[in-house]
Amino acid sequence: MSALLEIRGLEAAYGSSQVLFGIGMDIKAGDVATLLGRNGMGKTTTVRAILGLTPARAGTIHFRGQEIQKQAPDVIARMGIALVPEGRQIFPNLSVRENLVAFASNRNASNAPWTLERVYALFPRLAERATNMGNQLSGGEQQMLAIGRALMTNPHLLILDEATEGLAPLIRKEIWRCLAGLRAQGQTILVIDKYVQRLVQLADHHTLIERGQVVWQGSSSQLAENPALWERYVGV
Fold first, then answer.
1. How many whole angstroms from its chain centre is CA 75?
2. What is the pLDDT of residues 173-185, one digit of tens each?
3. How far apart are CA 129 and CA 116, in angstroms?
4. What is the pTM of this model?
């Protein structure tokens, strides 16, 4: 089966500073994949290149069989890639409900698309705070809102960049529960996070990068059997 997302030989830079050196990875439809590495190793730059926010200097990115590395970010988003960004980036002066409906769409042509009601069922706290402004929410509630906003676009691929960073343990647990539920529903997901113990329970496939290069790829069982590997490349 061909991959939903295929990256080959991806290089990217900020000015004269090259960050990615030949990144390659595949994500099949329905899989949960991770991109792992310490801070500053190129994870977010890889995501930005997928989304068209940082131009690819070399290499190719195919999404649903189409080459996208030269497409504009809005075109790529409408093709069905949704991001839950690091730092959440919700609209502070819009209500919870307004944040959720602002970009609502059925981009994957689902017969049972995500709606306000489904998002509220997934995160009951958002229903309780539907009329609150974004800047009146706690950090955990803002993260739930960022995930709900992405789901409201009904994406083919959901990307989460440090979705549990800075959250209290109980809220992190809620986010992991949410992701497990999405996986059970067949949502394709790319996760960037540091909690490898959780990720090996959730994901199908992992890619570890160091200084903008892939240093290891494999399954959850392979990664779980080699803790020294992820301690070397992911541990602080």
1. 18
2. 989 999 999 999 9
3. 13
4. 0.94
